[in-house]
Amino acid sequence: KWKSEPGALYTFLIEDNDVETRPVKVAHFMAVNIPGDDIAAGDVIFDHLPSFGFDLNEEGNGLDYEERGKKRHLVLVYKQSGRIDIAEEEKSIGCSENFIKRLETGGHDAIKENYSLQGPVAGTF
Length: 125
Prior knowledge:
mainly beta
């Protein structure tokens, strides 16, 4: 829950910032057009993706099954200046061929800029 303004719409994002093998930020969940703080009433862009991780071995050519780094996630809420319309082909819901879209967001700064979002107005930071 966050303090919301009457009639305002919000964007909610959970993002993994600890991907070290490739400089990307993974969107683990994203919803837009949230009235107040009612996430369930918003439009889901990326449904929940459980946290996952792996580390490369010292040679960099395989996985290290002994070491698994912990993942930190940012949870951010932005206020929208109006309704956001996102095409179906940009969404990743369920087992979707659009999974890669989660890796192509450019991170929370790019999302904020692309959709003219204000804030973050709440989150873990």
